[in-house]
Amino acid sequence: MWADNPAMRVRFTKMQGAGNDFVVLDERRGPLGLSAAQYRFLADRHFGVGADQILSVRPSPAAGLDFEYVIHNADGGEVEHCGNGARCFVRYVHDKGLTTHNPVRVKVHHGAISLALNPDGRVTVDMGPPIFDLAQVPFAPAGLASRPSGGWVAWPLPLAGGEEAPVAVLSMGNPHAVLRVADVDAAPVGTWGPQIEGHACFPRRVNAGFLQVLDRSHVRLRVYERGAGETLACGTGACAAVVAGIRQGWLDARVDVQTRGGVLTIEWAGNPDAPVFMTGPATTVFEGEIDLPDLS
Ligand SMILES: N[C@@H](CCC[C@H](N)C(=O)O)C(=O)O
Prior knowledge:
By secondary structure, this protein is mostly beta strands. The protein folds into 2 domains: 6-127 and 282-293, Diaminopimelate Epimerase, Chain A, domain 1 (Roll); 134-274, Diaminopimelate Epimerase, Chain A, domain 1. It is 15% helix and 41% strand. It is built from 4 helices and 19 strands. Bound molecules: the ligand N[C@@H](CCC[C@H](N)C(=O)O)C(=O)O. Ligand LBFN2T5F binds at residues 20, 52-53, 73, 79, 82-85, 174, 207, 225-228, 231, 234-236.
C-alpha cells in the first residue's frame, strides 16, 4: 500500500482524549511540509502510527497568543477544530515545558481558543459560541423544507432507500449534524453516518452525531466524524449535541456526555453569544519516531 522509500524521520507523541487519538508533531521550528498522503500514512493503524487526527504544534502567529495548532483528519484533510485534540494540545505543551501559562491561548483555524489545565488533571476548553448561521456551517438545504421542532429546526435529510434523518445543524467552528435517537447502541451509525457525512446539503461534508438523552444532565453520544469515521469520542460533536439538546429544551446548562471512550462535561448558558465549555481528560500514550515514506 505504501511506498518503502523513507524520506524523513519524524518524532511524534501519541495522545488520546476520551479515546479519540492523536499523533502530535512539534512544528515550532517550522512546518514539516507533510503531504496529505503522509498525514494518511501517520494515521494508518496498520502501516503508520494510527490516529483519528494529527495535531501540529506551531509557534504563535500573533501577540497575545501562545501557540498555533493545526489539525488534519485521518483522511489527510485539514480541518478547523478538534475539541479532544485541544485538550491533548494543552497537556502536551505543559508536559514538554513549552509554556507555564495557564490558561493557554491558542490560534486555531477560525480564531483563538483558551485552554485551562485543572488541578485534577482534566482540561477545560472555552470553545467559543456555537454558530447557527447555516451559510457559515456551511449547510445549503436546497429543496429541503425545515420542520420546527421545540425551539429548534430539524432538517429532514433524505437518505438511501427512502429513509430520512431529521438533523439539527450547527457549527462549533467545524460542521455538525445532530440526530436524536432512542438508543445509541442500536443507532445506524455505520450506515447513516457516512451518508450524512457526505450529504449534498453539506458542501464541506459534516460530522454526524447520534444523541441519546438519558435525563436533563446525562446523554450518550456516538459521532461519525468527517474524515475519520466513527471515533470513540468527538469533543466538538459533544458540544454541538448538547447545544442542540439545550436549544430543544431537552437538557440543562451542564451535561455529562458519555461517549464510548469516556465522559466529557459540556456547559452552555443557552444564549447565542455564550461560549461553550468542555471539560475532559487528556493523556500521553507514548512517544516515538517513524520514517515517513516520500508520498506526494
Ligand atoms: N475529533 C474531533 C473533531 C476532529 C475534526 C472533525 N473530524 C471534522 O472534520 O470537523 C473533536 O474532538 O472535536
